[in-house]
Amino acid sequence: QSALTQPASVSGSPGQSITISCTGTSTDVGSYNLVSWYQQHPGKAPKLMIFEVSKRPSGVSNRFSGSKSGNAASLTISGLQAEDEADYHCCSYAGGGTYVFGTGTKVTVL
Amino acid sequence: EVQLVESGGGLVNPGGSLRLSCAASGFTFSTYTMNWVRQAPGKGLEWVSSISSTSSYIYYADSLKGRFTITRDNAKNSLYLQMNSLRAEDTAVYYCARVDSNNYDYWGQGTLVTVSA
Question: In this structure, are residues A64 and A75 in contact, taking their beta carbons and an 8 Å threshold?
Fold first, then answer.
């Protein structure tokens, strides 16, 4: 159950697009289309932004999109806005009723 | 409105025990799998444990090595985490989260557990 690997930080200017990677293994990300992404502002609880690799919950902006290739998933934020500045965490089902989270990425809007 | 409210956190000595609770409201608690997820200071999220709606299926992170026990009381709409033999590395904010189709769709605000002498 090793954590999924994410870049520690990603930054971009308002209006730009950024992509956060999430690298796992053939036993988690590579085996299931059950990758989700969570946004977390300082001192707040995480919020579901993407589920099942690329689906958006009701109410989440379509500026957020997800994808997966092999053992890696990614979250893209287009039209970056100041309110997007937060920590982002990926998560994958890892089989046997277990889950694994990523190391987390701090997004900074320049 | 779905609400999850954790309680029971605090300061505990290494080797001590603590029991966390999560009070659920606004949904039919007995039909959902529930999880505990923790976050050490300045770190990422870490999955801790999962319990199915009827407690038939229970899973733990390997790193816990039998020190933690997850339970639930559907009559009281409550989730629990009994933590024994606590270590400094267990210091974290502990969140309870509802699971819907393998996603965490609702989270509590968390309760801080500090393990220190």
Answer: yes
- What are B67's strand-pairing partners? none
Spatial contact of B111 and B6, defined as CB atoms under 8 Å apart: yes
pLDDT of A101 above 90: yes
Mean pLDDT, range A78-104, rounded to an integer: 96
Q: Is A66 exposed, middle or buried (0-12, 13-18, 19+ CB in 10 A)?
A: buried
A38, closest residue in chain B (CA to CA): B104
SS3 B64: helix
Per-residue model confidence as pLDDT tens digits over A1-32: 799 999 999 999 999 999 999 999 999 999 99
pLDDT (tens digit, 9 = 90+) per residue, A38-73?
A: 999 999 999 999 999 999 999 999 999 999 999 999
Which residues in chain B touch residue A44, judged by CB atoms under 8 angstroms apart? Answer: 109
Instruction: Please enumerate residues of A whose Cβ is less than 8 A from a Cβ of B.
Output: 1, 3, 6, 34, 36, 38, 44-48, 51-52, 57, 89, 91, 93, 96-104
Q: A94 with A66: CB under 8 angstroms?
A: no
Long-range contacts: A61-64, Cβ < 8 Å, 24+?
A64/A37
CA A49 to CA B16: how far, in whole Å? 37
**Nearest-CA distance from A10 to chain B in Å?**
15
CB A58 within 8 A of CB B103: no
Q: CA-CA distance, B91 to B111, in Å (whole number)?
A: 11
Rounded distance, CA B9 to CA B114, Å?
8
